[in-house]
Q: What sequence folds into this?
């Protein structure tokens, strides 16, 4: 029984937990305003304000306004309005101990507030639910809601709600029997109010502090706060304060004072229809009279208490609360499930987004890899082409180096030849004079010998002596002739040598190379044939052919000199084929007559770039490598003594290279033939 | 008419004397010999240039035949004397130079005495 008393005491105490008197707002002015406004959001706000204002003084009317506000908000789909009206109506239902309805409204409001993300309302709804479950003695749920409210408040930093949180926390812990903790929260709430300068709200908090002190058996403090609470002169509030004072006096065994305040509490609670206080007061009076041995009075108040308690403990209401609690649990579960589904959806979305992002990253990576690969491929291609280019350039460089080496060798050879030529020319010049004397004096001596012979003829001497003298003179003449012959031979060598150093007096003129080559080829051929016929045996047998390039441009050369070169080369070619022919006839052909050799000279011309090339090819004896290395040296000859001076090719080389800036090359295979290649620049 | 042979070679004198012994004996040719350009210029001083034919080698130590020719032509730009130059085979440069300086003729070594005799005879 004592438990129930305590419960109802606490329930009652919640009545005005958040009921804030609006002293500055007239209920009538609000009602007037209500008539003026249209059915819109402002009307809902006025209705809600009326609900709140009338919560303590006229709960029935307040609830009517609350319902009207809810209906209108539902009609115009104004969720915020619905939340506010549900919150206000829920408070009234809590006050009137209509827990099932209160729970219904608060959960509805909670759902809507969360949907609309109304942070402050969410906190208030959670606090009211904490109160409701405290009243239901379901402290676990109460603490959960309290903690939820705190969490939301903390996350959103709403300072205005400090008071509500502290007050509710104090209320929950006081009901749980943790009075010290509760007292701490209440005192904090008290400070919050002072800070907010909301002195008019202090009556409730003072009452709670007083009643907590009372529970802690601190009589004086309890009396001080309870009396302070009375100073606010709120009639609807006085019932519970009187009851509190009565309880304090009862504890201190001041029975008369206790009876006095208990009766005042009963009277005031009856006036305000606060059934719990009516029950508690009646029970208290019954106990007090029992202590005073006034059993008649005690019985009287017991009857009152029992009658009121029955109305309070309506079984149907208890069932409804239980059902609602179950429904709420279910709703919670549903919400939880919704949250889970939402969470799952969110996770799915996150997964999808994550996968998309991953796919995008993969695609990006692939794109970059592809691009890098492409760049690398390009770079490789570039490198490859550069390598190829380098290889080409290297090959060119190597070729150039080879050419350069060849040119250098040629240059060295040229220089050698040049210096040798100059030397021989110098020597030749010096030899020429003495040779002239040799020739002249020998000629003179021949004449003198002849004169001597003639003079002796005139003198008469014995015939025998004359014959002897004639013989001597004849020998002398013969000797002089030999001296003269060899002197002239030496002279011709010297002449050849001097041709190296002779400055050409010829002028360069545009010349048809084909015509020039053809002319000298025929000259050489016929010259050699004529020479051969004059001999005792005719052995010259050779053929020639020409392959001249058509439309060959005329080039600037000294025709006499190039003619001399060509003649030289043709003569050599004919000599070579002739030599081979003789050799063949003498050896091979004799052994096998079917093996026939056809001496052939072929002359061709060609324009290659800026070069005019003349090739003189024979199928003669050919030359060894050693011979080829020496042929351009002066005085080198393979011909028998007296047949060649060894200056023909040396001179030709000088004419082509020095005189005309060209080249004279030889390609030869011993026993197969030789090709001389003249290259003349065409400018 | 005197033929002045200018040559640094001593044997030229012997050669000329022997080669033209008959002409000298017959009084057809009258040779004088100088061993250098300087000697020739010295000889020419006080001589009747119209009665002199100079036959000079080009390559000589000291004053060359070309220089001798230049000096003579400097004093008497137009002939006389008749001057024939002798040079080594193929010295085209000397030939051109000598002709430009006013040489009357040009002979090449080794001398063709038959040709020389004809040239001398026609000049005298």
A:
């Amino acid at each position: 029984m004592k438990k129930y008393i305590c419960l109802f005491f606490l329930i009652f105490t919640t009545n005005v937990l958040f009921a804030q008197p609006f002293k500055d707002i007239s209920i009538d002015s609000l009602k007037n305003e209500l008539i003026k406004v249209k059915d819109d959001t402002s009307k809902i706000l006025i209705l809600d304000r009326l609900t709140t204002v009338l919560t303590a003084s006229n709960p029935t009317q307040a609830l009517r306004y609350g319902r009207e506000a809810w209906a209108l908000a539902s009609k115009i789909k104004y969720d915020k309005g619905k939340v506010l009206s549900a919150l206000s109506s829920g408070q009234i239902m809590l006050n009137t101990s209509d827990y099932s309805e209160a729970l219904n409204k608060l959960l509805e409001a909670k759902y809507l507030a969360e949907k609309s993300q109304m942070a402050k309302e969410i906190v208030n709804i959670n606090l009211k639910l904490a109160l409701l479950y405290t009243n239901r003695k379901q402290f676990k749920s109460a603490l959960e809601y309290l903690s939820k409210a705190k969490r939301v408040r903390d996350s959103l930093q709403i300072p205005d709600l400090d008071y509500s949180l502290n007050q509710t926390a104090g209320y929950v812990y006081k009901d749980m029997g943790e009075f010290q903790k509760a007292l701490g929260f209440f005192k904090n709430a008290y400070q919050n109010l002072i800070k907010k300068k909301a002195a008019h709200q202090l009556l409730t908090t003072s009452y709670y502090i007083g009643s907590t002190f009372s529970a802690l058996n601190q009589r004086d403090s309890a009396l001080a706060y309870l009396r302070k609470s009375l100073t606010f002169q709120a009639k609807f509030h006085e019932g519970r304060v009187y009851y509190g004072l009565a309880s304090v006096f009862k504890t201190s065994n001041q029975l008369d004072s206790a009876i006095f305040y208990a009766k005042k509490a009963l009277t005031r609670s009856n006036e305000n229809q606060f059934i719990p206080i009516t029950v508690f007061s009646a029970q208290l009076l019954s106990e007090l009279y029992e202590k005073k041995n006034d059993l008649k009075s005690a019985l009287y108040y017991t009857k009152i208490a029992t009658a009121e308690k029955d109305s309070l403990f309506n079984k149907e209401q208890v069932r409804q609360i239980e059902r609602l609690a179950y429904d709420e649990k279910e709703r919670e579960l549903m919400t939880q499930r919704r949250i889970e589904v939402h969470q799952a959806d969110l996770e799915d979305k996150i997964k999808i987004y994550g996968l998309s992002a991953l796919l995008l990253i993969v695609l990006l990576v692939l794109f970059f890899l592809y691009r890098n690969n492409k760049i690398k491929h390009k770079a490789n291609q570039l490198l490859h082409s550069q390598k190829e280019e380098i290889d080409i350039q290297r090959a060119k460089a190597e070729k150039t180096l080879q050419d350069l080496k060849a040119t250098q060798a040629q240059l060295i050879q040229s220089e050698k030849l040049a210096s040798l030529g100059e030397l021989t020319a110098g020597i030749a010049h010096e030899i020429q004079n003495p040779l002239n004397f040799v020739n002249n004096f020998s000629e003179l001596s021949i004449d003198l010998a002849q004169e001597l012979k003639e003079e002796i003829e005139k003198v008469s001497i014995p015939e025998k002596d004359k014959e002897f003298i004639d013989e001597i003179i004849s020998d002398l003449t013969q000797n002089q002739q030999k001296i003269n012959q060899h002197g002239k031979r030496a002279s011709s060598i010297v002449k050849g040598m001097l041709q190296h150093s002779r400055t050409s007096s010829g002028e360069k003129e545009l010349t048809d190379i084909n015509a020039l080559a053809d002319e000298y080829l025929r000259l050489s051929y016929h010259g050699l044939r004529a020479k051969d016929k004059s001999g005792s045996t005719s052995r010259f047998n050779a053929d020639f052919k020409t392959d001249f390039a058509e439309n060959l441009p005329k080039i600037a050369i000294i025709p006499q000199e190039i003619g001399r070169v060509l003649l030289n080369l043709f003569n050599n070619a004919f000599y070579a084929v002739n030599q081979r022919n003789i050799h063949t006839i003498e050896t091979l052909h004799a052994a096998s007559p079917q093996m026939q050799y056809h001496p052939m000279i072929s002359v061709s011309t060609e324009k290659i770039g800026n070069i005019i090339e003349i090739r003189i090819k024979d199928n003669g004896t050919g030359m060894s490598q050693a011979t080829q290395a020496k042929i351009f040296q002066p005085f080198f000859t393979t011909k028998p003594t007296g047949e060649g001076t060894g200056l023909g090719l040396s001179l030709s080389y000088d004419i082509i290279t020095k005189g005309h800036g060209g080249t004279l090359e030889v390609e030869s295979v011993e026993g197969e033939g030789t090709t001389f290649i003249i290259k003349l620049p065409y400018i | 008419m005197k033929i002045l042979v200018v040559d640094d070679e001593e044997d030229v004198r012997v050669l000329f004397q022997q080669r033209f012994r008959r002409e000298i004996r017959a009084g057809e040719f009258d040779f004088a010999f100088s061993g250098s350009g300087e000697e020739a210029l010295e000889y020419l001083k006080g001589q009747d240039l119209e009665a002199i034919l100079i036959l000079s080698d080009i390559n000589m130590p000291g004053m060359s035949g070309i220089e001798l020719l230049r000096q003579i032509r400097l004093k008497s730009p137009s002939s006389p004397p008749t001057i024939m130059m002798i040079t080594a085979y193929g010295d085209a440069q000397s030939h051109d130079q000598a002709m430009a300086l006013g040489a009357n003729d040009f002979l090449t070594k080794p001398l063709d005495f038959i040709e020389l005799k004809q040239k001398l005879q026609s000049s005298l």
Observations:
- Chain A touches chain B at residues 429, 432-433, 435-437, 439-441, 443-444, 448, 491, 494-495, 498-499, 501-505 (CB under 8 Å).
- The first helix of chain A runs from residue 2 to 14.
- Chain A has five domains: 16-98, 117-229, 234-313, 345-475, 509-681.
